[in-house]
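Dear support,

I submitted the protein below through the web form. The confirmation email said the job was done, but the results page showed an empty box. After a refresh the structure appeared. I'm attaching both so you can tell me whether what I see now is the final result or a partial one.
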Amino acid sequence: MRVESASISSRERILAAIRHQPVDHLPLCFHGIGHQQVEFLSRRYPDQFELARFYLDLGLDTGILTSPPLYSTKGFETREWTEAPPGRGHSLMCKEYITSRGSLRQVVRKHDYPFESIELFSDHHVPAARSKEYCIEKEEDLDALQCVLQPPSADELTGYREEMRAARKFCDENDILLSGYHQGIGDPLAWLSGIEPILIAALEDPGFLKRYVEILSQWSLAILAIQIDAGIDILVRRGWYESTNFWSPKLYREFLFDPLKKEIEGAHQAGVLVNYCMNSGAMPLLGTFLDLGFDIYSLIDPTAGDTNLVRIKRAVGGTIALYGGVSNHHALETGTAEQVRQAVAEAVEALAPGGGFILGLGDCLDYQMSNPEVAEQNLYEMIEAWKGMR
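What the results page shows now:
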């Protein structure tokens, strides 16, 4: 749907698309309202305000994406060290969280870990080949986890609140949206415990997993309250490891549905929209998405698994706004100019009719890719293709 009138602001355009209302033209957004970003541009413009001006000058839509401190550092101490195992094994990086209710320990194989220090949350922890010891492996670990996952104190939030005041001012002056990034439940489960142990627990020790999820849910709601208080417009809620690539629809309903529903309801009560990010394995959950009632389904990549754009539009596109549609890897990072144009055309033809669509990428562009020159050329090719169809 289009309105034949003077151009509206980026904020108005994105909100209209989310609400399935008429817009002056189809939005194209690479950064600021979802998980997606163009990393080489983010490195070129490390100041988010400068990056937003760059996108706006191109005629694109954008926003400012923020994240608060995830937990207080006052309830525990940490210790890090490296171990050289006997024999010819690889060196191990170790980190311990020492609390009044026990200690947690993370151990990763140093040769395959790209950082000098171990963060509590990281995709790099998930593969069992990299993590020798996960942070949460047994019931007793949950007591210590409760001590670690305490929301940041008022003084620990001082810097964040100052940043948010500046971000809110910038967004209001430029009429763009302010978003808050949120880790959710399924992704921390995978970061802290790996995939296989969590799914085994779902089947063999559901009581342990339900308590684990409840601890994460209480923490997640506390972080959401901080973001709402800071004035976000959109909650960008991760669901990468919540897909049916890992969880069956039945287990999703049993363990992940209710915590997410609480987050969505809490956000909506405060007038905050929710963008749920799931890159693949979403097709069996489309009916569940309608029951959850979030506002945007994003990270849609037509090349991911059995993803079908036409089926997605038919199943949920009349109620939920759709964001993405073009593969970051197959189209922009490795494709030809013609393939980029074709990918844009297919996304627009499948997802734009009737409104409720924001054109974008299936995931972040330029993460350890092999040919950044091709990706940058194709980024501008995508913009030109969008201009011809918008």
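Response: this is the final, complete result; the empty box was a page-load delay. The longest strand covers residues 92-99.
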